């Protein structure tokens, strides 16, 4: 079968916005450094497959993440198509914002940590210091009418610290959203979360004034929970889901992280349940097969494997 039989499922939204992170989260952790021209083609193929929102790159120092060292080149290759409000890129600090603004970006994402250890490893800052780093970034971005997303990593567990209390995550989320960010993305960086935990965190955020209309979910699939967790979040009212074409991804500063939820697996589940995504699944699978060839290894996505072989 090339598409699922459609049987509407209760409790799901009519439409879901997929926030495609393949070009950024996917490629930042690949051993192979993908040429900028290939990244440009990847973004263009994703667009053509119907992905409306695509995170393109990161404005971080190349010595921290060499895979994203070509941000300017990628954006130059994309031209006007790389800078709209639905083409965000990661920006950790004012230096990153300078670079993004020089290219005319209209959407950025800052990325905080719920835990001290990961804040130190990923940002070279403490949790308290990360706010000081992001505050001027968000203030300037807002003044320049940019759209701003705030990620929080290690929301469901941390490889060094173990369990992460829900209230600790909520405290970080509230601090970041209070800076004036438009959207919060809950990162399960190492893919350990489970459905009850997702519900508990969304409920705790709501109680502190962050409703599901401002929340996106970002599950890595290390423990095979990403799709189940996403469906649980959708039933709780979330409508924006992060995913990476072909299940690419990881995080260079959390070795136990593997790929993101595969966009194809998400699309199969949503289309089967009668939920609109705007994505052409065949075109997306073709894109992931092409990208797997560029990387020299097969896609880990179950749906890509099934459809590419059928
Ligand atoms: P630092 O070394 O403390 O920075 O890094 P610094 O401010 O001390 O600056 C050191 C040097 O870097 C200076 O140059 C700066 O100019 C330069 P020098 O004077 O030595 O020649 N510099 C920059 N150059 C270019 N662009 C910049 C920039 N900033 C400083 N933006 C920093 C602090 C935050 C920059 C660093 O820790 C960093 O970039 N961290 C990001 C690492 C990263 O990208 N991780 C992956 C993304 S997060 C993720 O994947 C999780 C997520 O997917 C959600 C989830 O799954 O949970 C989002
Ligand atoms: Mg991630």
TrEMBL record:
GO terms for biological process: ketone body biosynthetic process; L-leucine catabolic process. PROSITE patterns: PYR_CT. Residues 16-285 form the Pyruvate carboxyltransferase domain. It holds the Pfam family HMGL-like. Coiled coil: none annotated. It comes from the Bacteria. CDD domains: DRE_TIM_HMGL. InterPro entries: Aldolase_TIM, HMGL, PYR_CT. Belongs to the HMG-CoA lyase family. PANTHER family: HYDROXYMETHYLGLUTARYL-COA LYASE. This is Hydroxymethylglutaryl-CoA lyase.
């Amino acid at each position: 079968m090339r598409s699922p039989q459609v049987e509407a499922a209760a409790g799901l939204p009519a439409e879901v916005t997929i926030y495609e992170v393949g070009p950024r989260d996917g490629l930042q952790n690949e051993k192979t450094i993908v040429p900028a021209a290939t990244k440009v083609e990847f973004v263009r193929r994703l667009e053509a497959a119907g992905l409306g929102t695509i995170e393109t790159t990161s404005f971080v120092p190349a010595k921290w993440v060499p895979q994203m060292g070509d941000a300017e080149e990628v954006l130059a290759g994309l031209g006007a198509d790389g800078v709209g409000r639905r083409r965000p890129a990661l920006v950790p600090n004012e230096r990153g914002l300078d670079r993004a603004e020089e290219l005319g970006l209209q959407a950025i994402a800052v990325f905080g940590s719920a835990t001290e250890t990961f804040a130190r490893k990923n940002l070279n800052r403490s949790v308290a210091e990360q706010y000081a780093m992001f505050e001027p970034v968000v203030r300037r971005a807002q003044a320049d009418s940019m759209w701003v997303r705030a990620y929080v990593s290690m929301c469901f567990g941390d490889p060094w610290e173990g369990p992460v209390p829900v209230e600790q995550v909520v405290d970080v989320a509230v601090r970041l959203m209070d800076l004036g960010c438009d959207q919060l993305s809950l990162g399960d960086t190492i893919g350990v979360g489970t459905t009850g935990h997702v519900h508990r965190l969304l409920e705790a955020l709501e109680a502190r004034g962050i409703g599901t209309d401002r929340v996106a979910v970002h599950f890595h699939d290390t423990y095979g929970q990403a799709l189940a967790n996403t469906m649980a979040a959708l039933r709780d009212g979330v409508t924006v889901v992060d995913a990476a074409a072909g299940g690419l991804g990881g995080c260079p500063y959390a070795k136990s992280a593997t790929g993101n939820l595969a966009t194809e697996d998400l699309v199969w589940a949503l289309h089967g349940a009668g939920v609109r995504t705007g994505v052409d699944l065949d075109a997306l699978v073709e894109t992931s097969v092409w990208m797997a060839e560029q990387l020299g290894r097969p896609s880990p996505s179950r749906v890509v494997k099934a459809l590419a072989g059928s």
